[in-house]
């Protein structure tokens, strides 16, 4: 099992040194970028006369060409930049592409290459080890995957050497943690639709990792890191070896890496985060439950106090409402916030009945701060490649990539239970409370507790991937013309296991808390439960249950989900120049691909439900309290069984027609492609693109434009997903204006159709004119319209729209069930929604040789993305369009900027980096008012405050060359330890958005690199 926590106080490089020595950890900074010129050539600019060192390689965006050729490290191989299938010297594709080179990857010093790429402004909503940590059931904890344009990870196609990679879970997205990262020499990020060239999923774009297939020699990295708060100790060790045999015809490459990141968390109840972090304020959107009194329905407040439960128990209804219990079980009057007074009907005066909160008071039982801030992560990756050049520029090869990634996180502390019915005769109940029951004439009362003495649930994932590729590629002549070919077969397997420890079986918990005295002993009141092994629990105080009671309520064999995914791909592509035309050769690329995707998932019988539980008798014995056929017995993690598969046949044709090539008019080309794809689940669909570039007669100025029709087919999860059950502990029932515990059941839909997108981009590029040879600028406008979006409404929207009179939504939920676990909301995806987003990408860079007469070079670079709009139309009558641009609770801020400044010589380098995104709002659907408010609705709820600050993070890093083969480096991220802004929720979750904000604080990293 991974380490659950690495606590400590203070910080310092001393702690960093300890972490480095003990765990061999590491981390990188961001890549700088300086576009290459329009001509074919090396990725780096030649050394200026008189300089002491070549300028640092800089990640190239399409101020440099989107596709260009040049020499590889061995001086013989072509460099083909992703963005098109055309392979023609000097050709520039119309789709903007950003390139991040090997030197920039090293300079950013991250333990996972994913962290470097995710900093690009066009990537919005990517997932990693710091996201999903509040979840038990998602299965995406620690999954490193990219999202371009805020369209989601499932709409970004990630490739390894231009080839598909088997998914790491049923959504089909790969895990970047499993790639052979030390061998990556370049990453191409295509900012725009590329389905016509690369196939389904490339709606937002493509991220292509290019490895060094001709590497020779030995190299290694050793790196360590730790946060300012003494946690998330990191250790990374990487090594690669390559050698050529048989007169440089047989090439063997092998690499391996091990990365351990201890993670951050959990915190504790109340306001206590992990370490000494003090930014958590339990910020919540408090729901008054009143929509038409002229006041806002939602109020933004810090220090929200749940009034239905307390750390060690609270009577929350009836004549005894307001009596709480301390650690020793002694009753006391609970300190409600807002000067609240219990009303005896489950509500509290001066507080917020819509989601059962007060402000201030006793916050000790609030569980929000107890979630992990970052999953612990451990990964081991092995890679090997063997190739043989059977003729000049022709090779046959095999690759093997085997990887394992483990993660763990604590989604919340204890067990939050707001709706327990307690009998006054319970022998654990203090006599004074039993006497008050008699005086009040009651035999039972409602009770809520955080079960502060219970162990914290722990979610552990184990993903193992086995990927095998056999291929052949090269060149041949045909009718006096040159052609290139590339064919491969890939078989990929992912085995993913999720195990949850210390989670409660709800019906057993209820039986264990209902105790009686029998023959002088305290036992469970239900004789059926006693016969099945029930052991009583005292919930009136901080008494740790006995081992037998914990084994009964939170058995060692908890929820699990075992998933196997397989992907088989056969692909063959050709590219050539069949004929010369008036302005150059006509270039052609064509090919086809077959792909088969399959998954199977098995879950434990208590969660999944089985009609015959006998096969599981050893670990999951039959229990009359557990609803075996239906499952969903756990408080969270009720995984289900399922399976599904589909086949895909594809064929494509791409052409590049040169239009003009003259000194007077410049150089222009027209690029077009079409792809036909047949899915076994949804039939045939077409993708296409038309675009072009014009190198104008004005020196260094290029214009480009492209429009495309892109597609994404529904993935295995959307089509065939077994139901996923998520616990909603404080769900607002607007019909009764009370908070209830409910389950959200998310299920697949086999009748889904592919999504269809229309991408358009227009841009202008200034690339290294003679009057400013170090200058590169680019400005691109983009617009994307996505129809038939596979999406769902939230559980809150479904219930709210029914409450407001839309009967369409009223058949899929129950909120007033008297049966334990009977409240539920069904959520299912449909092709109803449409999205529209548009904005600008801007990039600028300049490079000076021998600045101010000093040796070396100085480079500045800035990349920015501005999102003008991100409109989401649910496609359902009565549901308004919502613009999510600038909603900082999501992942699409109005502006996102990355700036880098680097000074470099042949002996050392120093980099300053800025990461910034703009101020925003909680949501554009809100109507802000304090008085005279309109009626609050599900489409346009009223609120008293709707602003969310952006953030600026400063990073520094540097390296020093100790010898020809040895380099030392350091990196400090979030130098000024900036805290995240609250991302308020309407329940008790941790109010933070790790998709945008840094939740860990200052991080120190250092290490060494060896090259021979």
TrEMBL record:
Low complexity bias (residue ranges): 32-50
Motif (TonB C-terminal box): 995-1012
Span of domain TonB-dependent receptor plug: 93-206
Primary localisation category: membrane
All residue ranges annotated as the TonB-dependent receptor-like beta-barrel domain in the record: 460-975
Chain residue ranges for the region called Disordered: 32-77
Annotated GO CC locations: cell outer membrane
Signal sequence annotation: 1-31
Localization annotation: Cell outer membrane
UniProt keywords, alphabetically: Cell outer membrane, Membrane, Receptor, Signal, TonB box, Transmembrane, Transmembrane beta strand, Transport
Stated family: Belongs to the TonB-dependent receptor family.
This protein's name: TonB-dependent receptor
Organism of provenance: Allosphingosinicella deserti
Biological classification of the source: Bacteria, Pseudomonadati, Pseudomonadota, Alphaproteobacteria, Sphingomonadales
